[in-house]
Amino acid sequence: IYEVDLIMGEQITSRQIYDRVRVAVKHASTQGAIKYAVYDIALRDMVLSKTRMEESLVNAVENDEFTMHLQPQYNMITERIESFEALIRWNNPNYNHVSPVEFIRVAEENNLIVHIGQMVMEETIKIAKQLETYQVSVGMNISPVQMVQRGFVQQFETLIEKYDIKPHSIAVEITETFMVSSLQLVSDKLQSLRKMGIHIHLDDFGMGYSTLSYLKDLPIDVIKIDKNFIDNITTDKYSKGIVNMISSLSKTLNVGVIAEGVERDDQAKALIKAGISVIQGFMISKAVPFDEAVKLLEKYNQKRTKSNKEE
What we know:
β7, α11 and β8 (278-280) form a beta-alpha-beta unit. The protein is an alpha/beta fold and 311 residues long. The protein contains 12 helices and 8 strands. It has helices spanning 14-28, 41-63, 100-109, 113-130, 144-147, 152-162, 176-181, 183-195, 227-231, 237-253, 265-274, 290-310; strands at 66-75, 80-90, 137-141, 170-175, 199-205, 222-225, 256-260, 278-280. Helix content is 49%, strand content 16%. The chain has an 8-stranded mixed beta barrel, surrounded by 4 helices. The model has no long low-confidence stretch (mean pLDDT 88).
């Protein structure tokens, strides 16, 4: 809806009316149950903000403003960091407050994600090579838009050979909702990646709305439990039940499990009780630059190695 209510003397063209109605239609299509939208000042400002972000993202790609931070994935049984998730950060003071989820969504809409995704792939593989001596792997998030591009697997293979990466040093994380909606499209590509020694992680598990039958048809190595279930694991019987179900399912399918968003000791204890030992979240560390990630490895892993030698 666009209500044409002109102030005296104001002029507007039919093209402007048409463009504003199109903006409202596009916004309405993203609103779920709400089937309409009104073009008003708030919507106009939102569109202008998004346009500015798109322009800034173009400059960011050209000026190499993106970097990768690492969040540890800690095994509570072995008391070691066994892997990291590489997470993109945008070094631009105008967008320090913007979640990566938000600017990645904008990048996907205008296909900039392909360029950003290529940077993420190469930087993550370079990091994994640097961390090989610590015997940890590094996971990266792959955008659905990037994965369906022609030549995606070949790009990955070229980088693996370029940096001479050992098998199982890299993991690719795919969201459950994308996996369900594009099963046939990505199945062959995931199989190819796995043959290269790349682990496949299913992210945000439990948040999808489809059958679990796809799990038997895809090469999944690790299931990642969504933070929403971890937040209330000690107070909500449904969250606790779902976590227990995922734990049992993982054992049946012989896949690993990582619990995301673990922030408190009581959550960690509940996960141990459920049979889940690997956690990721602020309880161990936020995502940090490479040098700080190495310090975390020295704090946790070398301390454990020293303790084992003393024993």
